[in-house]
Specification:
Elements: H1 2-25, H2 29-35, H3 45-69
């Protein structure tokens, strides 16, 4: 299970960096890597998959965090 947590944490960090870049520079790193673009709003299927995995990872990390607090 530690490997799954590590992968989820990496994806959450990537998502946080991506949203920071979108906010500061209007640059979508995930779209740039997945589609060769980079302008915010240029989303293809691969980008959507990555965004979905980042979202699921965030949920997983949050659940793990709150379960550890109990």
């Amino acid at each position: 299970m530690d490997m799954l947590y590590d992968i989820a944490l990496i994806l959450v960090i990537i998502g946080a960096i991506n949203w920071g870049l979108v906010s500061i520079a209007n640059f979508d790193l995930v779209a740039a890597i997945c589609a060769g673009g980079g302008r915010f709003g240029n989303i293809n299927t691969l980008s959507k998959i990555v965004y979905g995995l980042v979202g699921l990872s965030g949920i997983y990390i949050a659940i793990d965090y709150f379960m550890a607090m109990m």
